[in-house]
Design brief:
The protein has 964 residues and is mostly beta strands. It is built from 6 helices and 60 strands. Strand 24 and strand 25 form a beta hairpin.
Length: 964
């Protein structure tokens, strides 16, 4: 494999040096381009026109001359607003101002020049541009859009703002994109892959005001990109030739919350009230929170047009208090973070730019065991979490000549996380009351991890003319990831009075499980958790485990791609791409994970109907591989798994209990033929400029997932060693792992007047599948057939229709109004229960068979600015949930105990959707909900289909902002 990359790189260098000197307009992860054609008033091409580009975001200026066909292209432009000057002796000079350039886009700016002398015609360019070469589905949010349409400090993050993009459904800070799960996204900050290598979620935070623009590609990616979900690219600011900065402060507290007005019935053991009692859906006296969000930025020149700097810092502080429902006040859930970002941009020679970047994001979070929302944790039973992530990166971007672009980037992204008892005590035994579910005395878990991602990227672009024009981009990528972790229970069994820990926590003691005698390893350190009120005959139970050492897994990925932007005729662009990824894994002593290799062809076509970048038809088809996380090699790590139960009877005597006791090695196996997951994606659409500053795009999309994998352990009657496979279940059974998404997206971008800016989207879609896991992260499909039944259906991100409107208006007297509105037709939830064997979740109806009500929310922000010279001061007021909706956002889909299957006991794999000949109606017959059952598996009995979460009512936030 190494020879492949050596040969590819050598071939690339030879081709680059031999290519003739002509122009190109390819872009990179962090830059865009401007292209176009210059003609005279009769439509004839004007060669020799000098095109000069300037911008506050560009060091110096960039110049190009139109060719024999009047064409020009200026690549490698940082995102921002540009001015273009067109000069030629004997004609009137032209100026186009206000040209918006975004990363990975190349707007067409066509200019007509007339005969005349010593006259310049200035035109403000359209602020909504159509890129006639693009075939991907992409949403770009620039600085002003982010500043004025993002309402409320909770939304002022690069993760949450993605909810504005069509096809995106939020899932906390990690969205689901076009049917992909929330671990199939890639996250880039200035082109650096900041994705967490373990969970494959976002990898850190940063000051929102440090962001120049955010783009999310939802479908139709060029060969440069991987992962079948969304590709999120955050471009940060770089300073400039003038000193500039900002300070922003947002604040809210319990006085800014509206009291809920609607009542709900509450579950007896969830909220502590009697059966049938009513309470407010939101009671601010019990569910209060507070937030402070100061951040500041500063940037400017060290050397004008040569060396710029930019720094930003952000200190988020939030506080959430769970209600006192059981006679004690739970601990406050606090989040205190520091996010620091620095960037140096250096252009020592024209068209040669070096960039150095540093990001430091760390936080201390308390009450993480309950997440600040559960009243079942006494303060002494809480955990706290410390987390830290860094990014160190350097980049080189060059226009070496009009024929040759080059990009080189190297980055190092380490991170750490530790979750420990808030008491700092690892020896005191934590207690769980089985009758009330209340946890006390001490936290029961201690875990930590370190991870890192080291990446080297190199690409170059060259141009040739043969059967039209070609802009070839070739790149290589080397990515090393590493993960070291431990996860253990706390508590020393010797600290439990009356329990003979010296005898039981001893290699000499024999534990017989399933007829097999087991012994603890020599030198083992035991842990213990104490459970009270197990039953009338068992007042106390000890679950004893052992402390495992740290384990380390690694992954090495080598990638190669080639992308051709081919124009056989001026109106037609074909984007032809091929990507190759190969990954090797190491888990240091476990079952060796099979390596992954995947070739991914991709084809996109764009046709500019009138050759004026106003009416563009586009289509795409491609194979997109997933970047798999380090949970894959972690599955095979061989660590002892020991869970030994001791029951105490009513006489106070302790005895060993084989029920629930397990001895095993946690490391699993791998199917020798397991293949990497990928999706096939297709789209067709049309983009139309309907007015000078308005564009409409209608795109139909399809996405089907292939080669998903999960761990499978056989049948309950005949358990096998668990192993990772693309096809869990007995030989010959239907394929259970499926996912598909289909949608039609209407998107409108408009700046109809200088004072108004808005985007609108309507998405009509279906999102279906049999799993929403992040690859072997849960108990789906562990045992056949219990966890195979009814798994295929509508996923949680499915809503038939979803409408989004975001925009802002600049009003007289320096008032600015920002608006964010979303409406959906109701997402799904499932009717399921914990399988009686403990093997996982059993779906009693097809997945996603029930729907929540339609959800609507409107957020509004008003800012009043005061300007003195270069300085601007703003007062900000925000209203979240303007119309004070309290819609149900979750229901209890667990119906409690299933009395009978009514003939469905003998499940057989005859139906590929349900693995059972029984209907959903049959399965629900015999369900009962006994209001007297309040413990254990029946805790939620009596609350089937009752709401468990609600839209929070109206709330307010105030802020101040200073800019210069």
């Amino acid at each position: 494999m190494q020879k492949l990359f050596v040969r590819a790189t050598t071939l690339l260098a030879v081709l680059v040096l031999l290519m003739p000197g002509v122009m190109l307009a390819q872009t990179s992860r962090t830059t865009g381009a401007i292209q176009g054609t210059v003609t005279d008033s009769q439509g004839n091409a004007l060669p020799g026109v000098t095109v000069t580009i300037t911008s506050p975001q560009l060091q110096g200026s960039r110049t190009e001359v139109t060719d024999a066909d009047g064409k020009y292209a200026i690549p490698a432009l940082p995102p921002g607003t540009y001015k273009a000057e067109y000069t030629l002796s004997g004609v009137k000079n032209q100026v186009r101002d206000g040209i918006e350039v975004h990363a990975a886009q190349a707007p067409a700016i066509n200019v007509t020049m007339e005969l005349g002398v010593s006259e310049t015609v200035t035109v403000t360019a359209s602020q909504v541009v159509v890129d006639p070469t693009q075939t991907q589905t992409q949403t770009v949010m620039d600085e002003d859009h982010l500043k004025y349409t993002t309402v409320g400090s909770a939304n002022r993050s690069y993760q949450n703002v993605l909810a504005q993009a069509p096809g995106v459904t939020t899932a906390g800070g990690n969205p689901q994109v076009s049917g992909a799960n929330n671990a199939q996204n890639d996250w880039y900050i200035d082109g650096v892959n900041s994705t967490d290598p373990v969970t494959h979620t976002f990898g850190g935070n940063m000051a929102f005001d440090a962001i120049q623009e955010i783009s999310v590609i939802t479908l139709g990616k060029d060969a440069e990109y991987k992962s079948s979900g969304g590709t999120v690219n955050v471009i940060t600011k770089s300073g400039g030739n003038e000193f500039s900065g900002s300070f922003d402060y947002r604040y809210n507290d319990p006085d800014f919350l509206e009291q809920g007005k609607e009542k709900k019935f509450v579950a007896p053991t969830t909220f502590g009230g009697p059966v049938g009692a009513e309470s407010l859906r939101f009671d601010k006296n019990l569910q209060t929170d507070k937030s402070e969000q100061p951040q500041a930025t500063f940037g400017g020149p060290v050397m004008r047009d040569k060396l710029w700097f930019f720094i930003a810092t952000h200190k988020p502080e939030t506080n959430r208090v769970a209600p006192n429902l059981f006679g004690f006040q739970p601990a406050d859930r606090t989040f205190t973070g520091w996010n620091t970002h620095g960037k140096i941009t250096f252009t020592p020679w024209s068209n040669q730019t070096f960039t150095g970047k540093f990001t430091d994001s760390h936080a201390l979070i308390t009450a993480t065991a309950s997440n600040g929302t559960s009243s079942f944790f006494r303060p002494e039973a809480e955990t706290q979490q410390t987390q830290h992530s860094w990014i160190y990166a350097g980049a080189y971007d060059a226009v070496l000549s009009s024929k040759w672009l080059a990009n080189f980037q190297i980055s190092h992204r380490p991170s750490s996380l530790a979750s420990t008892p808030m008491s700092g005590d690892l020896s005191t035994v934590g207690v769980i009351d089985n009758a009330t579910s209340i946890r006390s005395v001490n936290a029961t878990n201690d875990q930590g991890r370190t991870a890192e991602r080291n990446e080297l990227i190199a690409s170059t672009t060259y141009y040739m003319e043969k059967m039209g024009t070609h802009a070839f981009k070739v790149g290589v990528n080397f990515d090393h990831t590493e993960f070291t972790s431990y996860n253990n229970a706390t508590g020393n069994p010797a600290n439990i009075p009356g329990f003979d820990a010296g005898t039981f926590c001893n290699p000499a003691f024999t534990y017989t499980v399933g007829g097999v005698a087991n012994h603890l390893p020599a030198g083992t350190q035991c842990t213990a958790i104490l459970t009270l009120n197990v039953s009338a005959a068992i007042p106390r139970r000890i679950t004893m485990g052992i402390i495992n050492p740290e384990s380390t897994v690694e992954g090495d990925t080598r990638s190669f791609y080639v992308q051709d932007e081919w124009r056989p005729i001026p109106r037609l662009t074909a984007r032809l791409g091929l990507r190759y990824d190969a990954t090797d894994w190491e888990n240091h002593g476990g079952a060796p994970p099979p390596s992954f290799e995947l070739w991914q062809p991709r084809v996109g076509v764009a046709y500019d109907i009138f050759n004026n970048a106003s009416s563009v038809v586009h289509a795409y088809g491609g194979k997109i591989g997933d970047e798999n996380q380090l949970t894959y090699p972690s599955f095979g790590v061989p660590l002892p798994f020991v869970s030994i139960r001791f029951n105490q009877n009513t006489a106070g005597v302790w005895s060993f209990s084989p029920t629930g006791t397990q001895f095993a090695v946690s490391g699993g196996l791998y199917d020798d033929e397991v293949d990497p997951s990928y999706s096939n994606q297709y789209s067709v659409g049309i983009t139309q400029r309907v007015f000078r500053n308005t564009s409409v795009d209608l795109t139909v999309e399809k996405r089907t997932q292939h080669n998903l994998f999960e761990d499978y352990c056989g049948t309950l009657a005949d358990q096998l060693d668990c192993y990772i496979t693309n096809h869990p279940g007995p030989a010959g059974s239907p394929q259970p792992l499926r996912a598909d998404w289909r949608g039609a997206i209407l998107k409108v971008e408009s700046r109809p007047m200088n004072w108004l800016d808005f985007t609108f989207s309507w998405t009509h879609s279906k999102s279906r599948g049999s799993t929403e896991s992040t690859q072997n992260q849960n108990t789906s499909f562990d045992y056949f057939p219990n966890t195979f039944v009814n798994t295929y259906g509508y996923l949680t991100d499915d809503a038939s229709d979803r409408v989004k409107l975001n925009g802002y208006a600049r009003l007289p007297w320096d008032f600015i109004v920002g608006l964010a509105h979303v409406w959906d037709s109701g997402q799904t939830f499932s009717v399921s229960r914990a399988d009686a064997t403990g093997a996982g979740t059993e779906f009693l109806e097809p997945r996603g068979s029930r729907r929540l009500p339609h959800l609507s929310q409107t957020d509004l922000q008003l800012q009043k600015d005061f300007t003195v010279g270069r300085f601007r001061f703003g007062l900000i007021g925000s209203v979240i949930n303007l119309f004070n909706k309290e819609t149900v956002t979750a229901r209890n889909g667990g119906p409690g105990t299933l009395a009978t299957y009514n003939g469905c006991v003998g499940k057989t794999a005859t139906d590929p959707n349900t693995f059972s000949p029984c209907s959903a109606a049959d399965r629900l017959t015999g369900l009962y909900t006994d209001p007297n059952q309040t413990t254990g598996a029946n805790r939620f009995a009596g609350t089937f289909l009752q709401p468990t979460a609600f839209q929070r009512p109206r709330r307010y936030e105030v802020g101040v902002r200073f800019e210069f």
